Request: fold
Amino acid sequence: MPSKTTSKTTSKTTSNFRIPKAELDGIYGRMLSGYAKRTYGEVPDFAYVMYHHKPLTKAILSFEGKVAKFSALDPNLKSYAEMASAAMIGCSWCMDFGYFMAHNKGLDEAKIRQVPVWRDSDVFTPLERDVLEYAEAMTATPPEVDDEMVDNLHRQLGVEATVELTAMISLENMRSRTNAAMGLASQGYSDTCELAPLAR
Reply:
């Protein structure tokens, strides 16, 4: 498993913040900043946006902490689904950070790199392709999910994992659409661990 990357030597932030960056002040802001720097090497741009609404920031981080403990769904499938959703929305921040986190969790980077072009790639299993298709169908506006798609995943994954998959895709939609709307772009997280670029 790759070692955890916790420091950044350069920052390639290209975000065009559509509202001013909030100051991470007070005890909670200092704690948030310290944790982020220890864990990710720097403060993620979304923290500067969300911190304008401190109760919302606390609620989201608490929820994300609980979500991170879910284990009914295979972590590789979860990562592919999240990346497919972020790619379809066009959130470069989420793509960059998702790739970085997949690396730190020891997931299959070769496949992660191919998520944006999964339909033309031969590295994914039939189940993985079903998951990617479902992620895109859920992310489409309006959603393009049908009964056969859900029944197929239910048979292969079981009901608990299917529900978890659905929830994670919904959550990634919230993340990606929020970050994209706020003008956040890649911070260069994947560059810190010298990851190969994502397929385009």
About this structure: The chain is about 60% helix and 0% strand.
